[in-house]
Amino acid sequence: MLKTISAVLLILYGFIAAMLLMFTQPTHEQWFYQFSYCQMFIVIPFVGSYCVLKGNRLGLVPLLVLFATQVVRPLPLNELFPFQAPFSLAMPFGNFSQGQGYLVDFFAIAMLLVVASIIVKQKVK
């Protein structure tokens, strides 16, 4: 049951990111940024959901890296991607009066723990 729920959440995560990219007007300078956003927030969750359902432990490692990088994000947000994470339950911490602080994403923490538990529970093939 946990595998199915996490696979559906990962598909929704990637689908929301795909909709963000689909409904934007790309400029010539943003192609690299949109390609990297696509790789990080669309391809990795879709491949990860497939690996969750098929039981491939090695395929879940990029998901761990993705959600580990999303747990704590500094402000101002980095400008590498045209958008931030497609789904986030972030809570701000720190001093925001001068634009400095951190966002702690509880959705990323929860998904990190779920994916790690799936990896630990799966038997080595």
Q: Mind sketching the topology for me?
A:
Elements: H1 2-22, H2 31-54, H3 61-70, E1 72-75, E2 90-93, E3 101-105, H4 106-121
Antiparallel strand pairs: 1-3, 2-3
Helix pairs in contact: 1-2, 3-4
Report what the structure shows.
By secondary structure, the chain is mainly alpha-helical. The chain is 57% helix and 10% strand. It has four helices and three strands. It has a three-stranded antiparallel beta sheet with strand order 1-3-2. The two termini are 21 Å apart.
- What fraction, in percent, of the residue positions are helical? 55-70%
Summarize model confidence as the mean pLDDT: 83
Helix/strand structural class: mainly alpha
Strand fraction: 5-15%
Terminal CA distance reads 21 Å
Q: Write down how many β-strands occur, each being a DSSP E stretch of 2 or more residues.
A: 3
In short:
The protein has 125 residues and is mostly helical. 57% of the residues lie in helices and 10% in strands.
